[in-house]
Amino acid sequence: MSDLPLSISGLTVAYQRKPVLWDIDIDIPPGSLVGVIGPNGAGKSTLLRACLGLIPVAAGEVRFFGQSYRQVDSRVAYVPQRESVDWDFPINAIDVVTMGLYRQIGWCRPVRKRHRETAREALQQVGLGELADRQINQLSGGQQQRVFLARALVQRADLYLMDEPLAAVDAATEQAIVGTLRSLRDAGKTAIVIHHDLPTVREYFDRVVLLNVRLLASGPVEEAFTDENLQQTYGGRLTLLDRATEAIARREIRT
Amino acid sequence: MNRYLLAEAWTRTLLLQDHNTRVVVIATTALGIAAGVIGSFTLLRRRALMGDALSHAMLPGIGLAFLAAPLIGWSEKSLPVLLAGACASGIVGTGTILFLRRYVRLNEDAVLGIVLSVFFGAGLAILGLVQQTSGGHAAGLESFIYGKTASITTTDAIGIGVTAVLTITFVGCLFKELTLLCFDEGFAAAKRFSTLGLDIGLMGMVIVITVVGLQAVGLILMIALLVIPASAARFWTTHVATMAWLSAAIAAVSCLVGALISASVPDLPSGAMIVLVAAAMFVVSISLGPQSGIFTRLADRRARLLPPPGVRRNPSAEDRVAGDRPEVGVGQTKDADRRYPGTAP
To answer: What is the ipTM of this complex?
Structure first.
């Protein structure tokens, strides 16, 4: 059990005494693609950020590969939300990807040519080899998202935590990212991906985590991604999110 | 005859024949380099105005140090004591900003405005009292507000030079860490770089530079050296390193020229001249700079009939790589319009 890429027990996070995550227990087995699903404000981003120690935790424990995050941080890669940074920043794509290697390079040491070569390979892997030297505000939203993905890939981690990599991207980017996720899984890696688009969950993921402040379900897609669990997760808000899913859910509940 | 004397004064100034002028010019230029480099990072970190609040918050410290110096056996005009006071009250001001921002529900700009004005007001009040009690003794204190390069001594110049070297070492050593901090704080923290430590280092450098720059440009205008050159540099480059060097060069030239003008024309305050020279270079940059400069944008629009940078361009053929399609149809971007807020022509 101690080899689980991610094991969360009793995790509780609160902002000014209001709980955002309440008593979460999740175990993620290796080699799986996990979709984290839940309405806006369910605490999905908070879950990832709390696991990485970016925000204070009120209670609970998070273990990566059986150890604390600081012991194994080199085996974990994080892809923040694309909107979280300023894309007008004076930097080009390859330099952003190189940031994935900064920890490995170490404090105060310069970026060497071989680091840039590694970064260039990662950019080629996500189909952006030719745009390596372009300033990031000259890239489309989908290309920017792939730059973020390349920055995670370059770390050669075993566990990837991704905050909405498929939000508001073009079809080509979506296919490139999903393809990359699958090849990561085939190499025995694990990815935990916050996802918004309910209709594609079955196609893209092996496991799901349904979250709305509390954990509603966590397990293989066939078992956990049920209409009942979805209704519980989204409550009355399901209608706003996905009419098609709701229609299917209603029909199946009746029969 | 009169004209001849004036010409000679100019020549002496411009050729740096005067020892004093030489000291002043070297000191202010070094100050410009330091402020230009650090200013690039505070600008990218979106902490530019923090430097302004910080420098204004130094005034009460100067006044109090003036009052306290005789009590600890120093001369009341001893520069180290005054600068130590400035430094201490600058740190208190920064602490107040951080405290209010964290524990009181106020916008950042409100916090900065309140701390800046209250500290500056308190400083003016203390200086008023100081001037009443000590008669003509306190006469030189306003030079900290407006800047008076003539008061720079060789020792001060050495202090400024050391600061410049320190700044370049700091940025040279932590260049990639500071860039990461400014670009993506969350990722930096996830990779276990101490963002708090880096922020403290950055603000610490701002405090040191402001303190040694007080005499040259004064605390009101110190912010100009931290913001204007860095902002101007952004219009010329898309690399942080180039931006930092360019910003240092622009700031250094502003200081050099500003100090020379101020030295050769009596009663022109140096701080003001430095700011005006920097402003002129800023205007040139925003007009002609290849990165979103006004004329570049106009020329671009004429030549290619494209919207100006800042507005999302439709991906043209050269923008697409193999297998990539423009963002239409499936998964259409919801945020294409709000990604570059406020930059529409």
So the answer is: 0.90
